[in-house]
Amino acid sequence: NFVSLSTALLLLNKFLYFCASLFRLNQNKKLFLTNTFLLNSTMSAYGKLVVIMAVVMLAISLDKACAGDPDMLQDVCVADLANSLPVNGYLCKKNFSEIDFSSMAIAKAGATNNTFGSVVTGANVMKVPGLNTLGVSMARIDYAPGGINPPHTHPRATEMIFVLEGELDVGFITTSNVLITKHIVKGEVFAFPRGLVHFQQNNGDVPAAVVAGFNSQLPGTQSIATTLFASSPTVPDSVLTKTFQVGTKEIQKIKSRLAPKK
Questions:
Q1: GO cellular component annotations, sorted alphabetically (predicted)?
Q2: How large a percentage of the chain has pLDDT more than 70?
Q3: Is 95 annotated as a binding residue?
Q4: Are 78 and 10 found together in one domain?
Q5: Is this model's pTM higher than 0.85 or not?
Q6: Residue 142 CB coordination number (10 Å)
Q7: 149 annotated binding-site participant
Q8: Which has the closest alpha carbon to 100: 121, 126, 119?
Q9: pLDDT tens, 119-177?
Q10: Looking at residue 20, what is its pLDDT?
Q11: Do 90 and 201 reside in the same domain of the chain?
């Protein structure tokens, strides 16, 4: 015998209502114990099975919600970058070729003559349309001597880097404010957990370079400094002065240095 869907939902609803009642009456210990006894003695085997199934289904749904990009539903879905229809990802284009799955975007070193002495060159779905729905992308990061890839996060992906040349001091900060840091050399890899603030710095006298891999077709990057001091519209000075415990002049000075070049 199998419980019908309507019966299963009714039993689950009654169980949840009963739990809510217990919560409201938890100050009455005697009544709480009595209801607990009644629950164990009157709930049918089918009812318990429904509850177990509901918990399992919830666990499965949470696991899917915490995954990276959504699973693909066909062999390929080459991104139609010309289509402006807003969807989570990109629509599939009808005609595609091998060109959509390859790129020379990260073949050469990028120019590092900028404020931070580093440059990130992406090989994501915007450069390789065939990555759409595949849940992967790459990037190349080049560092001048003394250059830094300043503290930032990737809200949609975990990152792993492989050192091509040079040496780096890298690290990330946990949500408990613990710094995990290491000096890495050519041939070494290092992983940065999804969403955590992290950085890389070249403290050597020669250029350095890494290749980064992500478990998202478009991991996104949010720089801590530019997010706070160079957003549009700007974050109010009152928020930043209170946050960093400094005066308005200091905040304005930082904003002027990080403001986008016109």
A1: apoplast; plasmodesma
A2: 74
A3: no
A4: no
A5: no
A6: 25
A7: yes
A8: 126
A9: 999 999 999 999 999 999 999 999 999 999 999 999 999 999 999 999 999 999 999 99
A10: 54
A11: yes
Tally of domains in the chain? 3
Summarised one tens digit per residue, pLDDT across range 244-255 is 999 999 999 999
CA distances from 217 to 152, 157, 198, 206, 243 (A): 18, 9, 20, 31, 34
* Strand ranges of the sheet holding 168-173, from the earlier edge strand across to the other edge: 179-184, 168-173, 198-201, 148-153, 222-223
Rounded distance between C-alpha atoms, residue 19 and residue 25, angstroms: 10
Q: In the numeric block, which tokens belong to residue 222?
A: 């949010």
CA distance 51 to 15: 8
Q: Is 152 annotated to bind ligand?
A: yes
Q: How would you label 119-140 residue by residue, b for 16+ Cβ within 10 Å and e otherwise?
A: bebbbbbebbbbbbbbbbbbbb
Q: Is 198 a known ligand-binding residue?
A: yes
CATH number, domain containing residue 102:
2.60.120.10
Are both 93 and 169 inside the same structural domain?
yes
Residue range(s) defining the domain that contains residue 54: 5-65
* Residues 103 and 214 occupy one common structural domain: yes
Indicate whether 180 pLDDT > 80: yes
Asked whether residue 187 falls in the same domain as residue 152, the answer is yes
Between these two residues, 26 and 153, which has the higher pLDDT value? 153
Same domain, 60 and 88: no
Is 171 in contact with 180 (CB distance < 8 Å)? yes
Question: Any alpha helices (H) in the chain, and if so which ranges?
Answer: 5-24, 29-42, 45-65, 224-229, 237-244, 248-258
